[in-house]
Design brief:
Blueprint (H helix, E strand, L loop, with lengths): L2 E5 L2 E3 L2 E10 L10 E7 L6 E4 L1 H9 L3 E2 L1 H10 L1 H13 L4 H83 L1
Parallel strand pairs: 1-6
Antiparallel strand pairs: 1-3, 2-3, 3-4, 4-5
Length: about 180
């Protein structure tokens, strides 16, 4: 039986979520599978990957073929590197402790890169939020000044109308006395 490591599509329209499964190559994409070894969520930034490392390494070592996308996921998580290092141990190029040391060094570097991406993304979001807040404050200030100007004009017009109204009856009172 030819086994594949592939993604099953779940989730709603335009918002996919993918379980990573081991399946017979003849089974339908979202059909029967042998084992679920993780999940992949491309909707987050960076994409969220959960993976049972030991089971993925086992299935790669027994010959399960990953699809292209799953191959990149396994490479990103270090499964293919560990499989390669264990091949070197089997050939006698170095011992298992050296293989583990190399893998740990690679994993630390990879985790540092991922943390850098997450912090830069968080900083970018914070700066854009701050810029939007400042722009909104500037718009609100401009609107407040405009409203204050209109209120001042309306108050001045009302005061002028009030002054004319008080002057008009005084003139009317003087007119009958003159006759």
């Amino acid at each position: 039986m030819a086994t594949k490591i592939r993604l099953q599509r779940h989730g709603r329209k335009n918002y996919p979520f993918y379980p990573i499964v081991i399946a017979d190559s003849r089974a339908p994409r979202d059909g029967r599978f042998i084992e679920r070894i993780g999940s992949y969520n491309p909707n987050t930034n960076p994409a969220t990957i959960t993976l049972n490392f030991d089971r993925a390494l086992y299935w790669v070592s027994v010959g399960a073929e990953p699809t292209d996308t799953v191959r990149s996921i396994l490479s990103r998580e270090g499964v293919l590197l560990m499989h390669h290092l264990l091949g070197g141990v089997a050939k006698g190029a170095f011992d298992e402790a050296e293989a583990q040391r190399r893998f740990d060094a690679w994993k630390a570097k990879k985790d540092a890169q991922l943390a850098g991406v997450k912090t830069s993304e968080a900083n970018r979001k914070a700066t854009t939020a701050k810029e939007r807040l400042e722009a909104e404050a500037a718009k609100n200030k401009a609107k407040a000044e405009e409203v204050a100007k209109k209120k001042a004009e309306a108050a001045a017009a009302a005061a002028a109308a009030n002054a004319e109204a008080t002057e008009a009856p005084a003139e009317d009172a003087e007119a009958p006395a003159a006759e």
